[in-house]
Amino acid sequence: MVGRYPTAQLLAVGDGRYLIDCGEGTQLRLLEHRRRLSSLRVIFISHLHGDHYYGLFGLLSTLSLQGRQEPLTVVGPPGLELALTTAAFHSRMQPGYPITFVPIDTEAHAVVYEDAQVRVWSLPMRHRIPCAGYLFEEQPRRDKLVKDKLPTGLTPAELSQLAQGQDLPADPATGRPAVAHADVSVPAAPPRRYAFCSDTLYTPELAELVHGVDLLYHEATFLHGLRERAAQTHHSTARQAATLAASADAHRLLIGHFSSRYKQLDAHLQEAREIFPWTELATEGLVISV
Ligand SMILES: [Zn+2]
Ligand SMILES: [Zn+2]
Fold first, then answer.
1. What residue ranges of the chain have pLDDT lower than 50?
2. Model-level pTM?
3. What's the pLDDT score for residue 45?
4. What is the 188 CA–ligand 1 centroid distance (Å)?
């Protein structure tokens, strides 16, 4: 349907750029929204249904044509590497940059990736084929120094020591007394967390794994009137997504992956908000900050 593209989300944390799923047309959408493909660091794929990864081969090829040399990590279910390398072999495509595939156990809740910005866990989904969601947790930020509380005349080295959380001993040479880090800083905000729950049957046990997240994305393919159809096809309803958000004590909920049978999405929003008022629709081009 026009205006309803397959799944892809771009997550920005500090200078890290992470792509979550890569349905057909993802690279064109990213260009339309003026996101540079070259800044991508890692791509997370939830499962091998076409609406979640058919755009990946094209994206990887484009990065090569653009002369990318920086390594790229691709995290996803087993089989993803074979699917891509088979396509690459038959089209004689040889990427000009190293790609590291990280096959994950889609039934486990485990750390699957970590760098200076984020730590990422897999979330077991229940779908027709192996499928994982991902929980992104920002790395702890440093406490912030409060300018007004800092003694004057500190050297850059002393400042950086304080910024790193260390105390300064007294300096007999200048007569400066000891400086305790806790006295000159305010604690950093707790790390922000984002959970991406891809195609799945309603799975109440997920609430425990994503408890207290700042933002929860959950699929809501159907309205509750079609809950039997949802169960048959291993999908969820808007009401189920909202119920999960409520029991997980999430701060906000984003619902998406709507069946093309629905021309309007007002009913999805209403159904979810009856249970969880802090719900938004994941629509094309939506930018949301956490
Ligand atoms: Zn699927
Ligand atoms: Zn899907």
1. 1
2. 0.90
3. 98
4. 38
